[in-house]
Amino acid sequence: MRLIIVLHVLLILSNGLLAVNSPFLTYTISGKNEWKITQDAYVVSEVLFKDLDLYYPDDIFIWENKMYIADSGNARIVVFDMITREATYVGDMSLFQPTGVFVDDDYIYVADPGTSEIVIFDKSGNEVKRIGRPTNPLFGETANFKPKKLVVDKRGNFYIVSEGTFEGIIQLDQNGEFLGYFGANTVGITFLDKFIDIFYTKEQKEKFLNRIPKPYTNITIDSKGLIYTVTQKERGNAIKKHNTIGLNILPASKERRMIDEPNFIDIAVDNNGRMFALTETGLIYEYDSEGNLLVSFGGRAIATERNGLFTVASAITVDADGKVYVLDRERGLVHVFNPTQYIQTLHKALELYSQGKYLESKGLWKELMIYDGYSKIAHYGLGKAYFQEGNYRAAADEFKKAYAKRDYSDAYWEIRNEFLQKNAGIILLGFILFIALLVALDELSKRGLIKKRLKISSKFLNDIIYIKNILRHPLDTFYYIQRRKHGSVLSATIIYVIFFLVIQFDYFGRSFIFNLNVHDRSVGFVLLASAAPTMLWVFANYLVSSINDGRGTLRDIYIFTAYSFAPYILFQPFVILLTYILTYNEAFIVSFVSMILITWSAVLLFTGVKEIHDYGVLDTIKSILLTLVWIFVIILVYSIVYMLWDQLAQTIYAIVQEVLYRARK
């Protein structure tokens, strides 16, 4: 065992030394979606074609130990035999600007936007056929047909990415007949778009709004016939995996939660469904078959040319051995990346995981932890293994590190169930004793042996404790507040402080299952986000009531608003504590009770406006709506003043700098 540990340490140290000399760093994602430097997943083994004079090559494809390159600038397809290391050429007399190449058992298919055609060659390089613009009326007379990239399925159907085509992928049969558009991108509608829809006419929308889907950037196909696409200027779903009818079936992409880039230009898929996406800057993202990021590596060569860094990357592919090939368009080179022991171990673990063999993958996940203790997917896989073997506490710990809330909830449910089974008798006995204690205290109180209420002489403390009275007698509470028999500015201020503390507790104090993903939020941000609207409400409502003959003073509004938060202040802490007991299956309880408390507080606030200002129901609604309008106006004015002041400050600073500069001269 000690020997194994020593060997692992030596392996890690050796990898660390290699990383020092590596031209790029490899990153992975932690459970909190933070980028972490990890072991090298791939290392550059060689750089091809330094003496081949490729000129702006655009695409690369590997088929049966041969590499096919769309050498766009030289108007040809380069066929490189990876065994004999010899190069031949196809189409150097018949192509104009080849930008996409695809190969199967029989043919070489080339997308040539220069001629607006698909050109088909046999394996000997003889031209077999050309497919031009579809003549089918359904295709449309004004539709673009400039094929940039293409793939062909086992039935001989073409899937073509055409320049400027936003309707989707052009699908043709083997004879070039138009079959339809495949899997078009959707148009995202923002809140502002929905707002505009209400007020704009149809003609205005057509004139001012440009709501068309983004065109696809590139395409590939896997061994099962599933189509993969990448789209530039997308976030969260730049990569899509399409089923036979064009729908996106990639889980992470459908939920728009993929960790991706807005400038992907190509994608490749290996035999196990793992995806490799390439950016123009040379970053390579590797994902598992469900869209979870494994590693990111590569980069742009800025000052010097170094193997593994790219000037302008243009295409990527992967072979059966897991080697990754990336085409540098600017330099006309192909960089070959070999997988390291780290990524090979991760791949093996993922293969066992995808087959449901969680226990068999346990050793591999533990080995990966030696390489990288941050990897989100490694913690998740190990958690699955622990869960299957019944070690639920260890599973919960790993799921927590992977930030996998639902799986953590499942493990916690098992832990809770085990605890309840072991301690059911004690819990029941404790509940019975608690009920008996309450009954006994009530009986002693009735006999006068103990005092039911503790008398507090301090008016300040009485005013704070009086908050509970609003739950049963809200009208009396607001009446006494206005008559100054209960409540004060100081007691209301203390209640506000408690209210803001409860919000902080609600925001940061929930259990892992129910937390609000607030690792990127600060206490100050939450305080400002809660205190500012509250104080704006008090001030704006005072302005509105002054205009609309409201009887409440600024002091009254300040105090009754604080007391209106009583349900949330008194009961929300118990809801938060409840999150440490419940699982995802009971999440509706937390949401439902929280909504009741917020609604209850809103009703009390409505009642407070009505009673303090002596309004009717309609006047109360009017007052609240006008208050919200005033809050919006105040925020708008503040924003305008802030921007003007910022510009003024920058102008004054620039003038001062100019004066100082001239004074020095």
Automatic annotation (TrEMBL):
Source organism superkingdom: Bacteria
Short name of any one Pfam family annotated for the protein: Yip1
Membrane topology, record value: Multi-pass membrane protein
TM segment ranges: 424-444, 487-505, 525-545, 557-582, 588-609, 621-645
Keywords attached to this entry: Membrane, TPR repeat, Transmembrane, Transmembrane helix
Subcellular location: Membrane
PROSITE patterns, sorted: TPR
Metal-binding is among the record's keywords: no
Source organism of the structure: Fervidobacterium changbaicum
Protein name listed in UniProt: DUF1282 domain-containing protein
Classification via InterPro entries: 6-blade_b-propeller_TolB-like, TPR-like_helical_dom_sf, TPR_rpt, TRIM-NHL_E3_ligases, Yip1_dom
Keyword Transmembrane in annotation: yes
Domain Yip1: 469-638
TPR repeat segments: 376-409
